[in-house]
Specification:
Layout: H1 3-51, H2 60-66, H3 68-83, H4 85-90, H5 97-107
């Protein structure tokens, strides 16, 4: 393979990588928005749970039962992390396009 063919292969690879990362952006935005909403709900529920004077007087499970908003949002957040939301949110932003392409050019 001569250098001209290698350069063409590299350009084709760069175009394909650019297309792939651009295709991930809309889905990543939705996953980020979902993560933000569930995190804010969990934080709000946690605040209400902590400032409730009954929380100190009853058992832990009774306290969770008395605060279903916090319990459900916390379970949802944990479920999202077990489902891999952290990979869907972070993966496209690990390497920006310019940084990623320059690394690939350096390696190839």
């Amino acid at each position: 393979m001569n250098s001209l063919e290698q350069a063409e292969d590299l350009k084709a690879f760069e175009r394909r990588l650019t297309e792939y990362i651009h295709c991930l952006q809309p889905a990543t935005g939705r996953w980020r928005m979902l993560l933000i909403v569930v995190s804010v709900c969990t934080a709000t529920g946690a605040w209400n749970w902590l400032i409730d004077p009954e929380t100190q007087k009853v058992s832990f499970f009774t306290s969770l039962w008395n605060h279903p908003f916090f319990t459900i949002s916390c379970i949802t957040l944990i479920g999202l992390f077990f489902a891999g939301i952290h990979k869907r949110v972070v993966a496209p932003s690990i390497c920006s396009m310019s940084n990623c392409v320059s690394r690939i050019q350096h390696v190839l």
